[in-house]
Each structure stands twice: as C-alpha cells, then as structure tokens.
Amino acid sequence: FISYPSKELNFEDLKTYLSEILVSHPKIKRGKNKGRRKPTNVKLSLTSQEDYELLTKYKHLVKGVPIAVQPFLTKAQRDELIRDKLTRRLYISNVPLEASHQEVLDSFTDFGEIEEVFLKKKTQ
Distance between CA 7 and CA 40 in Å, rounded? Predict the structure, then answer.
C-alpha cells in the first residue's frame, strides 16, 4: 500500500517510478476515490520478496516528493491493530505537575514494559 500527496505528485509519475525500480513488475492499481477529487493511494500485489524489502526498507522520493509505503492491511487487521494499541494505553490523572518522565516511568515499571511516557503539562 503506497500513499502519496495527490497535489504534488500524479499517479503516472508514481507508476513510472515503481515500474523502473521493481523487479517483478506488478500490476499497479490506483486506489479508490472515497469522496476526494483524486485517489491518493496505490495498491500493489508483490510476488517478489526483493521488491517488498526494497519498498519497505528504504525511503522513496518521486520527483522530490516523499511517498509512504506500508504493508496493506485488511479492515479486520487494521481494527485489531487499533484495538491492540488502545488496550496498551493507560491514562493517569492527578499526576503532580512537578513529576518528571523518569519518576512516572520508575513508578510503573514494576507492572510491565513501558513503551512511552507522555506528560501533559498545564499551561498557566
């Protein structure tokens, strides 16, 4: 699955770029237009592991415009990923304003691995 800014890059330029770099020459399909003027994604069915690694391992610029490459997920896979991410998130209220990231991290490491600490500071 590849997304790109449609105002800065057109589908034909992206298709040409992909045709030049991919070994397996997959069929390149334009994404469906869901209420937008122009689709902003492309779906590829790759048959080569080499192509998959080439696309996912490196950043790509087409005519100076970055494109985002990610594995295609079905709706069920996306829902599961979101559900998994949400079940790992913990919101804590009434944390003292002077608490540091390290203090919060130290307080909760006994309960499991902590991926990220974000402290929302009140503005005065």
Answer: 9
